[in-house]
Amino acid sequence: GAGVSQSPRYKVAKRGQDVALRCDPISGHVSLFWYQQALGQGPEFLTYFQNEAQLDKSGLPSDRFFAERPEGSVSTLKIQRTQQEDSAVYLCASSYDRNTDTQYFGPGTRLTVL
Amino acid sequence: DQQVKQNSPSLSVQEGRISILNCDYTNSMFDYFLWYKKYPAEGPTFLISISSIKDKNEDGRFTVFLNKSAKHLSLHIVPSQPGDSAVYFCAGNTPLVFGKGTRLSVIA
Predict the structure, then answer these.
(1) Is residue B64 within 8 angstroms of chain A, CB to CB?
(2) What is the pLDDT of residues A73-90, one digit of tens each?
(3) Rounded to 5 degrees, what angle do the CA atoms A107, B3, A69 make?
(4) Which chain B residues are within 8 Å of A88, Cβ to Cβ?
(5) Fewer Cβ atoms within 10 A, N terminus or C terminus of chain A?
(6) Are strands A44-50 and A53-56 parallel, antiparallel or unpaired?
């Protein structure tokens, strides 16, 4: 497909378990962003990549959160030792160039930590 | 500190009438503002944007107005259609900082 895809769409984890969330951006898009959306809130910025370089990770809530984009296309957001407060929808977005400001979002991964 | 505020969690409008969604911001450094629309179980979809040097941008049924002195922007949808029913997020950049959203219901 032509859009941003994310997998899995839904993930249930037991507290303490590690999870990995995948994002496939639109082909050719240089910039990739991760957001966390809690229930009833707007998406909140987590981290930003330009190609394979992680240029901004100021939004990552703790050192349990780690993101990578090793080849400048697919990205993985990893959460170690999940906690209940990590339950949220994790959204990935990509844009052709950061300065265009039009980010295209994937459908998100809903993470539930029991 | 909420940099972008959408104070109305919900809005109901009759089909054919105008929908006005409001947004206030505190960060004077934003140089672009965007509106996104979100349906359940889908990611946000870009709707319309406005540069901070403009005061109006129009695209079909959608118009965004920016009042920099009041740090306020609004999205006007006219005429409203049932398919417009969704959650609308206002955002400033960069990086994107979103408001909490307003749920619009257009009643046929």
Answers:
(1) no
(2) 999 999 999 999 999 999
(3) 40
(4) none
(5) N
(6) antiparallel
The identity of residue B18, as a single letter, is I
Q: Domain tally for chain A?
A: 1
Three-state DSSP state, A63: coil
CB burial of residue B56 (10 Å; 0-12, 13-18, 19+) = exposed
The SS3 of residue B85 is coil
User: What are the structural domains of chain B?
Assistant: 4-107 (2.60.40.10)
The residue range of the domain holding A84 is 5-113
For B96, the closest of A4, A103, A108 (CB atoms) is A103
A2 burial (CB, 10 Å; 0-12 / 13-18 / 19+) is exposed
Q: Which residue of A has its CA nearest to B93?
A: A101
Q: What are the pLDDT digits (tens) for B3-60?
A: 999 999 999 999 999 999 999 999 998 989 999 999 998 999 999 999 999 999 999 9
Read off the pLDDT of residues B54-65 as tens digits, 9 standing for 90 and up: 999 999 999 999
- Secondary structure of residue A98 in the 3-state scheme: helix
